[in-house]
Amino acid sequence: MTDLATTAPTIEDRLAAVPELGGGGRFRALTRNYGWQVAVALEFVAALLLWWYFTTVNPILPRSFLPPPSQVWEAMKGLFVTGTIFSHTLFTLQNFAAGFLLATVVSIPIGLLMGSSRLIELFAAPPMWAAYAVPRVALAPLFVLIFGMGAASKVALVFLMASFPILINTMQGVKSVNPSFIRVGQVYGGGRAEIGRTVILPAVLPYILAGLRIGVAGAIAGALIGEFIGSFEGLGMLLARAAFNFEVSRALALVAIVVLLAQGLMSVIQFVRKRVAPWDESTWA
Amino acid sequence: MLGDTPIETQMKAPSPLLAGDESVREALAGQDKPWWLRLGRWQRIGVIALEFLVIAIIWEIAIGRFELVSPIFLPPPTRILEGLIELFSSGEIFPHLRISAYAWVIGYAMAASFGILGGFLMGGSKVFARLGGPIIWLIYAAPWIAFQPLFAVWFGFGVRPVIFIVFTAAVFAVLFNTAAGVQTVDTALLRCAAVFGAGTFARYRTVVFPAVFPFVLVGLRHAVVIATVGLLVGELTSTTVGLGALVAIKTAQFRIGSAFAVIVLTVIFTTVVGQSVAAAARRLAPWHVQEGGG
Question: Residue A284's closest CA among A10, A70, A6?
Fold first, then answer.
């Protein structure tokens, strides 16, 4: 779905490709695409200029709503120069890493089990779907109450938010393995371990990686929401506090940092996916 | 000459005798299947219902009676039920319910209309897809929860930032599903419509809309769940009225039973509304095969 949204041809494109309807050749399509890339770059520059223009030269936007780019840049510099950002980023990333690793280590084996045994699936899947239906963010205040304002509640929230996508995707992955491939493996005398390694693992891996990617998004959300609700440290806490004090430029700078950080973590998973499961051509769920 | 026929044709032979053979074989195969693979639909539901009952009873006894975990942290089912009754009988929940319903409906309606419109533009128009796509993509790639404090500053503390967080959370589900639907419209059908002289409007009405409609409904169904999560995220902090705020308040008062009751209410709400959209999809767009639940 995601790749489709940016690269798939629109209806206009497809009609244009029909020569009878006045479409061009392949070469023209190619040059047009470069033209579009330039246009997108110009668009972003224009947006930046408009932002600058309407906050400084002709300030119709109130500063409390959108401060000029220079102020956001100053706030960003301030965060780095004073060094506040580093310890808080470290805190958030530590919680993220701990919770996410825990979720991976716990969810993948359970997902494999639930996917491979119909008996386990019969009994374990319904409670799992029931738990999945619960909006887990609503448990954030409870987690802060139980595990305190420190790192423990955030790790638990990250775990909670990241584990379900990984578990469900792993389970679906195992269930999607083509049974005739397994039979072929058996015909060629493969044992359980060998079939697991040569047939099931390559088929399940793309699903697990897709689950990990969704899990990363959930984990970031969990880390942030935990810090919004109650924390002494972390990027989420800094962001919530900046907002509470109406420091919009600082809040914007922090949002930018959080977004970049999330993107970085996502691309790590994408990179791993390309290295570990290059045979998976499918788009991400 | 049986030996000359390829083995595949032999197996696919539409002989009633062979078909009969097949059913006999299936029946025989059923004999050595373990019981859990032989359950019918209702038997399955019965087993699962029984399982949930057993879980609830164990939960009740382990926590309500023996307090293996402090009931303050994980209240037993009866405590949650008590909390639910208390919330309604005291009338405490109604102002929260009203504000949340307001924020949810406005945010969801905004997300639905912008999502459908944007999805059609992104799937249909080249200019919009190429110029608008990257921007939409950039916003989508950001974790929307990070915008929550920003929205509170921009739109004031209260119900308005909640509406916007509901909108931001839900809009992309509708938008990307609609766009994907438009982008997967059968090109042959489009050409066919063009050959028969259909203009842009007629093409959209007869080919594109019927094809995209089921995708829109799938998007709307996903959006129900995400909008509710957005609602709770928006209300947990920076407001005092709303279901999310009620969860936070009840938790702070150590009345976890009531907090859980509110969460249960949101689960019931998303399930009922989500299933209604799915049912609407089955009724209104029966030509489209629904994708699996969950």
Answer: A6
What's the ipTM?
A: 0.82
Q: Which of A14, A133, A243 has its CB closest to that of B152? A: A243
Nearest to B294 among A129, A228, A262 (CB): A129
Find out whether B176 and B119 touch, Cβ atoms under 8 Å: yes
Spatial neighbors of A206 by CB under 8 A, at least 6 apart, are: A173, A273, A277, A279, A280, A282
Q: What is the pLDDT of residues B69-107, one digit of tens each?
A: 888 888 999 999 999 999 999 989 999 999 999 999 999
Which residue among A9, A134, A224 places its CB closest to the CB of B145?
Answer: A224
Residues A106 and A155: beta-carbon distance below 8 Å: no
SS3 call for A164: helix
**Pairwise CB contact (< 8 Å): A259 & B141:** yes
B121: closest chain A residue by CA: A10
Confirm if A223 and A92 have CB atoms less than 8 A apart: yes
Q: How many helices (H) and strands (E) does chain B have?
A: 14, 0
- Show the tokens assigned to A85: 């950002």
Q: In chain A, which residues have their Cβ closer than 8 Å to the Cβ of B179? A: 4-5
Q: What is the pTM of this model?
A: 0.83
- Residue located via tokens 């579009």: A36
